[in-house]
Design a protein that fits this description.
- The chain is mainly β.
- It has a single domain, classed as Metal Binding Protein, Guanine Nucleotide Exchange Factor, Chain A (Beta Complex).
- Helices cover 12% and strands 32% of the residues.
- 25% of the residues are buried.
- It has three helices and ten strands.
- A hairpin with a 5-residue loop joins strand 6 (63-66) and strand 7.
- The strands form two sheets. It has a seven-stranded mixed β-sheet. It has a three-stranded antiparallel β-sheet with strand order 1-2-5, with no helix packed on it.
- One zinc ion binds at residues 32, 34, 36-37, 113-114.
- Residues 32, 34, 36-37, 113-114 line the site of one zinc ion.
Length: 155
């Protein structure tokens, strides 16, 4: 997929305090099942795409960081906790979480890391019965929801 370098891909955290922009097309797009990614996300795996550090710009707010090991630093929003970045210390690259992109379909993972930690139930869970949020809300008899999630665009 060709990405307009001038427009770039944009993303940010759930509350909108942190917004970023990518000036290059993400490469090395992968999902990672390792235990550190499971803990960092609270999910069964994380999905990342990387660009050069010079192609990553924070356009609003500040990315908080946690040095999850002596080789890497993970970035997140200090206000809402959304995981945003992974940076191997000393490397010229930074990866962003695909779920934090305004268009999470913009790039597609081609490899998987941390296969040894992949949760056994993942293939079965992805084959489980599906429900849309709309259907779920109707079933729960919830008429309206005023969410506090920042829209997938610059505000
Ligand atoms: Zn936030
Ligand atoms: Zn990982």
């Amino acid at each position: 997929m060709a990405i307009d370098a001038a427009a770039g891909l944009k993303g940010g955290c759930q509350c909108g305090a942190v917004r970023y922009r990518l000036m290059g097309e993400p490469t090395g797009v992968n999902i990672c099942h390792c235990r550190m990614c499971q803990k960092a996300s609270g999910g069964p795996f994380m999905a990342f795409g990387g660009v050069r550090m010079s192609e990553f710009a924070v356009s609003r707010g500040v990315v908080s960081t946690f040095a999850s090991s002596d080789i890497a630093e993970r970035g997140f929003c200090g206000q809402c906790g959304t995981p945003l970045t992974y940076h191997r210390l000393g490397s010229d690259r930074v990866s962003v979480t695909l779920g934090s992109l305004d268009d999470p379909n913009a790039v597609e993972p081609a490899t998987q890391l941390g296969a040894e930690s992949s949760v056994r139930w993942l293939p079965r869970a992805l084959g489980a019965p599906e429900t849309s949020v709309e259907q779920w809300l109707a079933r729960a008899k919830i008429q309206t929801v005023h969410n506090r999630q920042h829209p997938d665009q610059e505000a």
